[in-house]
Design goal:
mainly alpha, Cytochrome p450, three-stranded antiparallel sheet, two-stranded antiparallel sheet, 15 helices, 5 strands, 54% helix, Cyt_P450_E_grp-I, metal-binding, Cytochrome_P450_monoxygenase, monooxygenase activity
Length: 391
């Protein structure tokens, strides 16, 4: 689906790719990308304000944040403004969204893929297979053309600001096809996961109004130090509670899908998927309040990386740990900070039905899912937004 990028490479190939891709996600690069993310987050909050006026304050949050996270990846990673939030039909973005659209044809085909060997499922004359194959071919072609175009700009010394793609191009260690595969890997890995994590953050803040108000005071205080459109990474570094809210959200609701194995003897060499959700809520690691949303656990000297647990390196494994850890985690955290700050700084966020409990589902990642179509829930989330001070 996404070629031979870092997400699918193994052993020596993965090690080599990670070393080559790493420069695109170093701290100084992410700091340069933060202003791009923030401007998109501001656009999102303005869009939400307009939408809320037309709907008496109720907003279908998860669908809309999914569009803006795609736009953020567009400007910060590809150097392209997809304008998905405004209904633009950018071919690459539209093709990508079509591949993720959970139609019955796709669902039936994915079920077949899970039950049958890949060489058989690839030949099935199913509509889902035909559509997916066509989308894959188009996505690979469009991505390759984008890489080629940006490469020409870099070669000619054109004015091309820092993006993930520009860093990879200047690195010079990848072929055009290699860069295409890396960018598609990042697009697939970083889109739905970040939008879903941000949705979970809104749910947690809506159900913990005292934490939301504490965060709002911090955000508005930081925003008062500069012009709203000139926010930098340094301003975000002055908001430790925002960072704590992001870390606590990611701990409680890691979006990577889990597999649970119980009572089964596992032979040597067997691949095992560990339960990130269970580990992140383990009382033996996090204490008696492990299941509670308490951002304060991440505050204090040294706690920002391990939440006050005894394991200072691998306490929270939302992004995994070690050589297979998520290389884009700093990008994802920065993106979440921008979106959460833009929303909380401008709106009071409440659940339409205060007693609604979160329900999750998903195949590739954990996503909010409705127990029934007419109930408020996070896959079709309706928040009541009351406009606060303008950013």
């Amino acid at each position: 689906m996404i070629g031979r990028g870092i997400g699918t490479a193994e052993l020596a190939e993965h090690k080599a790719q990670r070393k080559s891709v790493r420069p695109a996600f170093l701290g100084h690069v992410i700091k340069e990308l933060v202003p791009k993310m923030w401007l998109k987050a501001l656009e999102f909050s303005d869009f939400m304000a307009t939408e809320s006026k037309a709907t008496d304050g109720t907003i279908e949050f998860h669908r809309l944040v999914s569009l803006v996270t795609l736009d953020i990846i567009g400007v910060a990673a590809f150097g392209e403004d997809f304008k998905s939030l405004y209904g633009s039909q950018n071919e690459l973005a539209a093709t990508f969204r079509r591949m993720l659209d959970p139609t019955w044809d796709f669902i039936k085909y994915f079920v077949a893929c899970m039950l049958l060997p890949s060489w058989i499922s690839a030949m099935l004359p199913m509509e889902g297979n035909k559509t997916l194959t066509a989308c894959k071919s188009k996505l690979l072609s469009l991505s390759h053309q984008l890489v080629t175009d940006k490469k020409e700009v870099v070669k000619k010394g054109g004015n091309y600001s820092t993006t993930v793609l520009s860093v990879l191009l200047k690195n010079g260690e990848f072929s055009d096809d290699d860069i295409r595969d890396q960018m598609l890997t990042f697009l697939f890995a970083g889109h739905e996961t970040t939008s879903t994590s941000t949705t979970f953050a809104m749910y947690l803040l809506a159900t913990h109004p005292e934490i939301q108000e504490k965060l709002r005071l911090e955000v508005q205080g930081a925003l008062s130090q500069c012009h709203p459109h000139e926010l930098t990474d340094q301003i975000f570094e002055s908001m430790p509670f925002l960072a704590a809210v992001v870390s606590e959200t990611l701990r409680l609701w890691p979006v990577a899908r889990d597999s649970v194995i119980r009572g089964v003897t596992i032979p040597k060499g067997t691949r095992v998927n560990m339960s990130i959700l269970t580990a992140n809520r383990s009382q033996s690691i996090w204490g008696a309040d492990a299941a509670e949303f308490r951002p304060e656990r991440w505050l204090g000297e040294g706690r920002e990386t391990h939440g006050g647990t005894n394991n200072r390196l691998a306490s929270s494994i939302t992004f995994l740990f070690g050589p297979r850890s998520c290389i884009g985690q700093s990008f994802a955290r920065a993106e979440m900070k921008c979106l959460i700050a833009a929303m909380v700084g401008k709106f009071k966020i409440e659940m339409l039905h205060s007693d609604q409990q979160v329900v999750v589902a998903g195949a590739v990642s954990l996503i909010p899912s409705p127990p029934c179509p007419d109930m408020l829930c996070l896959s079709n989330t309706l928040y009541t937004l009351s406009s606060r001070s303008s950013l």
